[in-house]
């Protein structure tokens, strides 16, 4: 093993000397505990139960407590604790539900002293009272906690948490009668050992099981808890309600937490799975650990500080069958590998920039940047002279604010509040959202909603007599944008707008259009980009290799040909399409005439007849050619475009409005990513109702269950004031209904309102009507009720 630093610590008359060292165990360890004088450590597991002496250079095995010919589950330990007043007294929690005490002062090989077999399932934790020599507490998987007097054969008190399994129990160091218990359902309970019938306080600490807790050795009101939600929380118990004062986010479930001696804000943690390292955190700096020990190769199962007043020696056991002593000078410092620079945009466009304080303070003549309306804010922690890591670098944070009037995200909030996502027909939703987007000057988004309405909404519901009128006049039901005039276009284009027939390109049809109509070209059944006319209305079938729009010159037009005049009221029967049609006879004759020059023969222009309007094709012809599914790929690409541009609001809104029409075109993972991003933005802007509406209307299964998870409603009976079960609204104790209206005396099954002063209430409408004539409580208690 490589040479490590040697540390010597003077503790009163004792001196702790050692280095980082380890020893191999016979089996994986589940728990470890150290004796009062810090000279020995006990290691317990399913197949190991030994005591080791901690010498200066190595661990030396002193005693094997697994003795006897027959193997017994009493030796299979889930936890072990060494009494801090009697160095000969140990207690173990067995996996078969037995609590065993061990007396090391016995002369025989078998040191087993007493067996308590009252628990029905595995005991997860045992704990000695810090000052009472004969008091032992246990917490089991059966949901009960038991207090034992070692002078008696049975438990003296049984505490029922009315919950799932107990994961940890810890006596308070400062309060003689108080202990804390953590549970699988995320709750923490505080008990008084003199009152086993009811807990003193209960609060929900974590989102999931709470695996461990530890009282602060100096501050009597601080309790640290760790859970499966990968968080370590510090609670202040000195207030009427438990107050969370610090929260540390780790990368895996927290299995053990231990406060560091002589360091008020430091604690050590290890994980239950995935992460094998041991971290020491400064709770004031919760995002990066102060120190890290990386020696173990498997999950760390137990950690303990070697001495109550020594912050430099840490002992740990692991499933890799090793026992380690860690020295703080050998710990790695993640802060040294962290990037001290950072850049981030705020929700409303503010820019925050963090850099090393040495770089910022060195440039004392730095001119403020344009838009810098706030002096830089420096976050620098005053270093403790006893701190091991004096070289911890600090960063200076500069914030550059946007102008107060330039709310760059105001459109997002207005759009979220005004959009309609359900409750109407698809056409109405698209029209409403297009109107909202247009009013907010988001023209591209407005046009997108209009196109979605055209694609997915059938025009067959509109009277046929109004089709041409709506197109020519610009009806509100089918809005037309960017229409242009043929005359203006022809005059602007000049000779380039003419059709060259000399290149051998034969066209099957020449179309005469109204000069005021909007033009649409069709190439392989796709709409021209930028066109805003419904796809239902086409200008015939333009056959050929190119999708050009041909204009006719008015001076050379042969309008006397009746076969090329399209009627205004109906669409004529379609003529037979010829593979290689010849040009019109009159054009051929003119081209062959000796009286026509070559240039005149090559260039033939026709002009539109103003008396003819745009032709509408029947809806049945449109549906047979371009069903809504035809545009699914285009709509999918459109949604991806908006998402890539950062407008997840548009992507999610279209997903909800179209529903099953487009859901199958986008994979579930992508939808979930869009939904979570949009919901996160809504919640940042505190748009809670809209966020909940998006969750309810979501087409993604992983999103619809978000508002159904981690939601707990605690209800007390209004008669006996006791907590009610989740089975119904009838109290199990007093057999009374808890939600009775004080006015009509019927059960309230809908919205319930109550006075926070007297707890009486009822139907919202009934209470409002009652308050119109009286201010006193309708239940007759005499309270002057106030409803908020």
From TrEMBL:
PROSITE patterns, sorted: WD_REPEATS_1 (PS00678), WD_REPEATS_2 (PS50082), WD_REPEATS_REGION (PS50294)
Top EC class of this enzyme: transferase
Compartments it resides in: Lysosome membrane
Disordered: annotated segments: 579-598
WD repeats by residue range: 116-158, 203-245
GO molecular function, one term: zinc ion binding
SUPFAM superfamilies: WD40 repeat-like (SSF50978)
SMART domains, per database record: WD40
EC number(s) per entry: 2.3.2.27
Biological process, per Gene Ontology: autophagy; cellular response to amino acid starvation; cytoplasmic translation; negative regulation of TORC1 signaling; negative regulation of translational initiation; positive regulation of macroautophagy; positive regulation of TORC1 signaling; positive regulation of translational initiation
Keyword field: Autophagy, Lysosome, Membrane, Metal-binding, Repeat, Transferase, Ubl conjugation pathway, WD repeat, Zinc, Zinc-finger
Gene3D superfamilies, sorted: YVTN repeat-like/Quinoprotein amine dehydrogenase
Pathway: Protein modification; protein ubiquitination
Any one GO CC term of the record: GATOR2 complex
InterPro entries recorded: WD40/YVTN_repeat-like_dom_sf, WD40_repeat_CS, WD40_repeat_dom_sf, WD40_rpt, WDR24
Catalytic activity reported: S-ubiquitinyl-[E2 ubiquitin-conjugating enzyme]-L-cysteine + [acceptor protein]-L-lysine = [E2 ubiquitin-conjugating enzyme]-L-cysteine + N(6)-ubiquitinyl-[acceptor protein]-L-lysine
Pfam families hit by this protein: WD40 (PF00400)
Domain of life of the organism encoding this protein: Eukaryota
Known partners and oligomeric status: Component of the GATOR2 subcomplex, composed of MIOS, SEC13, SEH1L, WDR24 and WDR59. The GATOR2 complex interacts with CASTOR1 and CASTOR2; the interaction is negatively regulated by arginine. The GATOR2 complex interacts with SESN1, SESN2 and SESN3; the interaction is negatively regulated by amino acids. SESN1, SESN2 and SESN3 convey leucine availability via direct interaction with SEH1L and WDR24.
Function: Catalytic component of the GATOR2 complex, a multiprotein complex that acts as an activator of the amino acid-sensing branch of the mTORC1 signaling pathway. The GATOR2 complex indirectly activates mTORC1 through the inhibition of the GATOR1 subcomplex. GATOR2 probably acts as an E3 ubiquitin-protein ligase toward GATOR1. In the presence of abundant amino acids, the GATOR2 complex mediates ubiquitination of the NPRL2 core component of the GATOR1 complex, leading to GATOR1 inactivation. In the absence of amino acids, GATOR2 is inhibited, activating the GATOR1 complex.
Annotated family: Belongs to the WD repeat WDR24 family.
Protein's name in the database: GATOR2 complex protein WDR24
